[in-house]
Amino acid sequence: MHTNQDIIVLIGMMGTGKSTVGAHLAEATGYRLLDLDAMIVQRAGYPIPQLFAEQGEAHFRDLETAVLCEALRMPGSILATGGGAVLRERNCREMLEHGWVVALSASAETIVARVGEDSGRPLLAGGAQARVEALLAERKHAYDFAHLTVDTSGKSPDKVSAEILMHYRG
């Protein structure tokens, strides 16, 4: 094992497969699946789009950091993060310190095909294709700190899972 914490952290843009691959990894390892966005919703008591709208992105990011730090102290977990969890330096340091970080990537076309015009994704409002391309460019190097990067375009969640576990188990 690569980490004494036994936590696999999945990072990457929305639509790269973090939740889906996370579920497959949890099944394969027997670890519990933690979905950071779901944990934030549970803590806040209302959906992320509402959190963004009413409290603003800064408040959301503060909550995200707090919940992330708690989740990273739960060994035997697969942690699927939100796409923007890497935007704070502290979050990246915490992930590296307490988990084994895997960045999932995908082409803009793949992401748009997967998430489309999802109204539950505040950052995609107004033209998914253009927004996804802009976000990919903006976050081009945001995921570079990961221990492993896996492109999920055109691969089944099982195949991606197997690839991750092959590296994780060394």
UniProtKB/TrEMBL annotation:
Q: What is its EC number?
A: 2.7.1.71
Q: Where in the cell is it found?
A: Cytoplasm
Query: What Pfam families has UniProt attached to this entry?
Result: SKI (PF01202)
- What pathway annotation does it carry? Metabolic intermediate biosynthesis; chorismate biosynthesis; chorismate from D-erythrose 4-phosphate and phosphoenolpyruvate: step 5/7
What this protein catalyses is:
shikimate + ATP = 3-phosphoshikimate + ADP + H(+)
Identify which top EC class this enzyme belongs to. Answer: transferase
Keywords recorded for this protein, A-Z: Amino-acid biosynthesis, Aromatic amino acid biosynthesis, ATP-binding, Cytoplasm, Kinase, Magnesium, Metal-binding, Nucleotide-binding, Transferase
**GO molecular-function terms, A-Z:** shikimate kinase activity
The residues listed in the UniProt record as binding Mg(2+), with positions renumbered to this chain, are S19
- Its predominant location is cytoplasm
Where in this chain does the entry annotate a coiled-coil region? none
Is this entry keyworded Signal? no
Residues noted as binding substrate in the record, renumbered to the chain: D37, R61, G83, R139
Q: Which PANTHER family match?
A: SHIKIMATE KINASE, SHIKIMATE KINASE 1, CHLOROPLASTIC
Query: What does the subunit section of this Swiss-Prot or TrEMBL entry state?
Result: Monomer.
Write out the function statement from the record: Catalyzes the specific phosphorylation of the 3-hydroxyl group of shikimic acid using ATP as a cosubstrate.
Name assigned to this protein: Shikimate kinase
